[in-house]
Amino acid sequence: MQQQSIFVLFLVLAGIATIVFTYIFISSKKAAAEEKGMSNPLKKRFWFSLILFVILTIFITATIPKSPYYLFADETPARVIHVSAIQFQFILSEKAIDPENPSGESHIELPINELVEFRVTSLDVNHGFALYDSSNRLITQVQAMPGYVNRLRHKFKDPGEYKILCLEYCGMAHQVMRSSFMVN
Ligand code: CUA
Fold first, then answer.
1. Residue 135 burial (CB < 10 Å; 0-12/13-18/19+)?
2. Which residues fall within 8 angstroms of residue 9, CB to CB, at 6 or more apart?
């Protein structure tokens, strides 16, 4: 439902942007044609650019705080899970993972409605760390990058088995790179 409304909102905004850019394109052609009457189309273009700028600024300001990297910024996570991506598996652990000798826990259980923080890195190439709910819907994701630890915070609202899939092409066996955990 939420994904659908975001998609409709995207279509509406893309439509508005298309109309504005078409108008600017047509008016700039007109301006080129009539060399004398330059001031009017230029004025119109200025106002359209300003309106577009204001719309985009409002949209970005309203949506950025809802991105997973800003959500729960002031809260202390109830659980921290360390994640090391490596061709072609995800290693998950409650404790920090030794890059020289990476090992993790095969079964991870996470609490429902509590803040969980994943600290995600990679031990070789770039991978994607993407979480899917039991209906195979993508709920959140972050890049797994060598040399960086990216924090992904999330509150799971539904119990069940969640899947982790790699969302970045990382080699021949990219498509089998997956893992899972339980939320209850
Ligand atoms: Cu790891 Cu694709």
1. exposed
2. none
Q: What is the mean pLDDT of residues 24-46?
A: 74
- DSSP for 152-169 reads EEEE--S-EEEEEE--S-
pLDDT at 10: 75
Band (90; pLDDT cuts 50, 70, 90):
very high
CATH 2.40.10.120 is right for the domain spanning 75-183: no
Q: How large is the average pLDDT for residues 101-128?
A: 95
- Whether pLDDT at 31 is above 70: no
Place of tokens 């990219």: 174
d(CA 34, CA 117): 60
Domain locations in the chain as residue ranges: 2-66, 75-183
**pLDDT value of residue 59:** 94
User: What atom of ligand 1 comes closest to residue 171's alpha carbon?
Assistant: 2
Q: Residue 154 burial by CB count (10 A; 0-12/13-18/19+): exposed, middle or buried?
A: buried
pTM, entire model? 0.68
Which residues' Cβ are closer than 6 Å to ligand 1?
Answer: 85, 88, 127, 166, 168-170, 174, 177
Q: Which helix (H) or strand (E) holds 138?
A: strand 138-144
Cα 127 to middle of ligand 1, angstroms: 5
CA of 107 to the centre of ligand 1 (A): 21
Q: What number is the average pLDDT over the span 23-49?
A: 76
